Amino acid sequence: MNTGDERGLAETAPVGLFEADGDMIIRAANTRLANMVGLSREDLVGRPLRTLLTRSSQFVYALKVEHALLTDGAAEEIFLELDHADGRARAVLLTVIPDDENTDRRHGALFSAPERRAYELELIAARQAVGEKIKEENAARQALSEANETLERLVADRTAALEQRDLLLREVYHRVKNNLQVVDGLLLIRARQLDDPAAKAAMEELRKRIFALGLVHHQLMGSKDLKTFDVASFLKELLAHLRADAPETVTLALEVAPLAVDLDFAVPLGLLITELATNALRHAFPSGAGEIKVSLAAPAAGEVVLRVADNGVGLPPDFQKQRRSGLSVVDGLVRQLGGRIEPIQTKGVCWEAHLPTPRTG
Amino acid sequence: MMLHPNRVLIVDDEFIITETLRIYVEDMGLEVCGTAATADSALEMAHAHQPYIVLMDVRLQGERDGIQASEDICEQVGSKVIFITGSREPATLERIESHQPAAVLFKPVSEGQLGSVVQKVLKTAPPYQA
Fold it and tell me: If both were cysteines, with which of A211, A296, A350, B18 could A344 make a disulfide (CB 3.0 to 4.6 Å apart)?
């Protein structure tokens, strides 16, 4: 092999070349390598390759190159920076292979790789960006799952609170109803001890009012939202109760449109109907027979019309005077409901009350 | 042993209510053989007096409620139980229904309501032989 040719190739190749011993101490180097570090070729001989590197590359060298040489006897394309005498580091790729014959000899090449650094930095930045993004996504996912948990807990708490509220409300309605039954019982027991028929009758009438109150709470207990109920089922039971005490020759009819009502509407309404129907039972039928008709309709938006009509003897001539003399229970209840009431001229007596539709929102 | 069709046992832990029911029952021409406020005394009285009809509240004093008392009385004595309850709790009503009561009435109960239910239950009674 011609030494001159080898020299020529080694000197003209666009890479830094060197020969080193087993400890990677440089034995020979070409001019390009010398230029890469800003030293002369002679200065390079005897120096460990590692000392040509920047401080940070010396770490990389120890980690990657020395490790590769130890395990494989060779290293390939390791990115490093040469410490140049002018202070500006040169980016290179190092490849080392063992000598075919001499185990204590290695051949190395340093490829200039100025773009490689920028590329690596970009890669690192990209990797970091991806990492950040993943971190952000994880954080977002975590936040979402935490928010979900919080929400679920809130819903569970709220549901439990509502169930508790329902339980308490039912209990309250139950107790109110029970207490009304006790009051009713007290009136009954007391009425039994009375001899005066008028006093007895007054007690019985009171019991009807109390029954109406109890009925409202009974409806509330069966209501889904514990707040509103259909007025129809309420009035049906109320009328059934009034009918029970009426003579068999008097019929009580009910005509009612479906309407959701609450306690504030149902209590005065129930008392009002009880009052009017009782009055009719008491005064309308001296002969003992007739019909009382209770109807509740919603002919126009925002208004409920209650009629309690009988086909009896009609109002006494001095009724208006009597009525004005004092606020009756009927007038008071209608006022409480925010409505007005008038007798309508019919064959008997027909009371017609116009009441604002209850707001049950 | 034959049950007495004219005897009624009243079970409720509220005195005024048992007294109200007593008046209703006596007005019907029936005899109140006793009133009980607990499930245990209700069972005891049912054994002692053999009433054909028991008026039973659900909530009672003591550990056991009216539904449990009813179960025992139906099984051991055979009386017809009419529940008179203030509750409309679906769970409670389901429990009552599962014991096939003779009837269920809700408080406030009127004399008329109770009267017609009692008459209906009495129609199921076999002719009494003393």
Answer: A350
